[in-house]
Amino acid sequence: MKNNLVKEIAKDRVEKLLKFAEERALENTEASKKLSKRYVQLARKISMHYKVSIPKELKNRICKKCNNFLIPGINCSVRLASSKRFLVYKCECGAEKHIFYK
Ligand SMILES: [Zn+2]
Fold first, then answer.
1. pLDDT in tens, the chain (102 residues)
2. What separation in Å is there between the alpha carbon of 10 and the centre of ligand 1?
3. What's the 33 CA to ligand 1 centre distance in angstroms?
4. Where are the domains of the chain?
5. What's the 84 CA to ligand 1 centre distance in angstroms?
């Protein structure tokens, strides 16, 4: 019966953590980068533990390899794929993410 409430809280926490992660990533200092990754890590843990999904628009911003919250121009580069069907986000760790759009 309380399961839904727990999930609501978990989802809220995940979104807040990712918001913090974005704010820290924008600061772009060594210390804030570490914190940002930590927030992303936590958010992913919570989402897995409570089986709540991370909203797609936020999921697209997370590097699966190093937990970076991707900010174009700060810690990732963006280019259009040659097929023009998706964007390629390249994280500073070298991992690439394909973002499909309509
Ligand atoms: Zn990365």
1. 577 999 999 999 999 999 999 999 999 999 999 999 999 999 999 999 999 999 999 999 999 999 999 999 999 999 999 998 999 999 999 999 999 887
2. 24
3. 12
4. 3-100
5. 23
